[in-house]
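User: Mind token order:
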Amino acid sequence: MPKIAITGITGFVGTNLKNYLSSYEIEPLSVRYVPNQKFEINADAIIHLAGKAHDLKKVSKPTDYYEANFELTKQLFDSFLASKASIFIFMSTVKAVADQVDGILTEDAIPHPKTHYGLAKRQAEEYILEKELPGGKRVYILRPCMIHGPENKGNLNLLYQLVAKGLPWPLKAFQNQRSFLSVENLCFLVKKLIENKEIPSGIYNCADDEVLSTNEVVKIISFVLNRKDRSVAIPKVIITGIAKFGDVIRFPLNSETIQKLTENYRVSNQKIKTVLKIEQLPNTAQSGLEKTINSFINK
């Protein structure tokens, strides 16, 4: 039975992955950036989840991202190369490529990250890709889009709170399409990569098969809560005006918030499905979101 070392195992993805891979011997690997350090790897595979997440409150220092997401990954990857471990999985992000997407994001897109979070992740990707792999070793760089599932604390929770309180969703007039990723689908993909020695090393996008609009997400939340969908199509010109006013007085409904809630961000998962020889992932986008919302209710 292969032994798997996981960094960031106490986080959202790590907790779900540990449970999903319960048939394997799992070893938590505690890591934190310290200059010139090396790690002793006593496992067959390493899943590197640890790092600094995107800071929505914008209070983090740029160096925090580069130390946690780039320098630490360099140290861990160098330790992997010097070890007997055969598999290295690095959890990157679609933000290492683009903050905004026109069309559908594929692995062939030329990276143009804009944030320190995305830049640091991309630097880590480049470092891994430029190294020559010894025989028998496999390396996978995964680029997930917005991940959701039990214990998720991101924007989906904010939408859930809005619907749960009976407040109207005011942005129905905006039509968008964006990709999500069920944490169960992510765990499924990771397990397949570990088990299949024929999968070539490289970069792989991770996303659910279907795309959803934010309006559809609100409908799903309303359905799970057995609430009426109270979405309101306030004219875009009025919303834009409110957003500009919010920029000045630091109101929650500002231009950046509107952008995040209504932007298109479609991600292709075709490459990883092709190499795994599967037509679809176990969970649909809707079923995965329903599980996520139910976890909010139960909590």
User: Anything to note?
Assistant: Residues 9 and 15 are 6 Å apart (CA to CA). The radius of gyration is 20 Å. The chain has ten helices and eleven strands.
